[in-house]
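Exam revision sheet. Question 4 asks you to relate a sequence to its structure. Input first:
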Amino acid sequence: MSIATHLPALQVVLPLLAAPLTVLLRRPGLAFLVAVAASWCALAIALALALQVHGSGVISYPIGNWPPPIGIEYRVDALSSAMLVLVAGIASVVLPFARGSIEREVPAAQHYLFYTMFLLCMTGLLGISITGDAFNIFVFLEISSLSTYVLIALGRDKRALVAAYQYLIMGTIGATFIVIAIGLLYLMTGTLNLADMGRRIAAVNGTRPVLAALAFLTVGVSLKLALFPLHQWLPNAYAYAPTAVSAFVAATATKVAVYVLLRFYFGVFGEAQVFGRLPMEQMMLVLALAGMFVASTIAIFQTDLKRLFAYSSVGQIGYIVLGLSFDSATGLTASIVHLFNHGVTKGAIFMLLGIVVASVGGATLARVHGLGRLMPWTSAGIVLAGLSLIGVPGTAGFVTKWYLVLAALEQGQWWLVFLIVASSLVSLMYVWRFVEAADFREPRKDIAPAAVPRSMAVPTAVLLVAVVLFGLDTHYTVDPAIRAAEMLLGGGR
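Answer key, structure tokens:
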């Protein structure tokens, strides 16, 4: 049997085995090499699985040769393969960047621990994306969450501990709601296999336990994805965590939470149950618009750039949920496309802010005065990523908003088109705050920018290229999103 047959298992096993190896090594340099090698291998496996799915269809991998639904199944389809590429791709870019970043933001004695926790977080996110078992989703969710709490707490700022504790409390509540939902679904269907659960649930749809499971799952996952107003943990977590952690978590963790929501909504409960019997469209629409406008407005008044773009993430999550609220192929395509587009955009922004922190000692608006003259390439990169958040043509963010506009027009909701454009203007306002400070203020005489290591500059440039590439050539993001949307609307199985 060839190694290609076991690629689904290796997708999770490789980073999982690499994590304790970094602890045993304890030397930061060796731990870094192990972590980078594991992430690059994970990316290669993810790309191979994506090509295989595109060519021959869904991959079913039974763990221990126990056929599903008896045993645990790893299942790779159009949506899960896209998530695997996103998580592994972001990790493979952030890890090389992280070495230079954590030297300034994490105590030296904890560097090896950073790589351990990073690999565990990546393992959890990859596991969520590939498993076809409901309880496995919960297990991997906890692996990623617990490691994220530690990663946030590694920051030198003492407020990082408070942020990690706040995230721990909110995350625990969310995880509790999710496991209650899974328990209710198992009680009603007698299976934990997602595909089998989706087939069996038809006989009990509409019953109170199933509706309760849907409610618990929605609230629990909404806490994990930081849907407004359940986002209180996110601004502090992103602001006080080491920049490499902010970049990775912002680009992947909330996106994987959306994946979980999509998997259960369309693959288990079914579109008719979620959107036909319940007012989910209206509820999602209200929460999406609230996030798009309220969170983005709060971002305008922030003085710390990490915190500013953290609130921006809450607003951008609103766009993803807005796509779901349309309950249409175009709207769902917009949501899935934005998982990619916002992932690379926000990853690039936080990595750029990491360069700013390393160079000038902080990322407040007061410290970036004149940054456009002192660090023109870094400043231009932040502006470019900001244009993507606004949705300017030629950037990745424009593609998302284009499909959202199309989805609104399909349903004759012209007023939503106006609101989508208006929300972009709000995004312009908080991006302009950086532009005004960096390009229209005199450089501070008490700050002399330090040289930026290539290990930080090159990975950041890769994500900036992706921001432009995904905006100019939609083949890489829209085509997989369309296939995933069609699969979900067909039952998700």
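Marking note for examiners. The chain has a mean pLDDT of 87.
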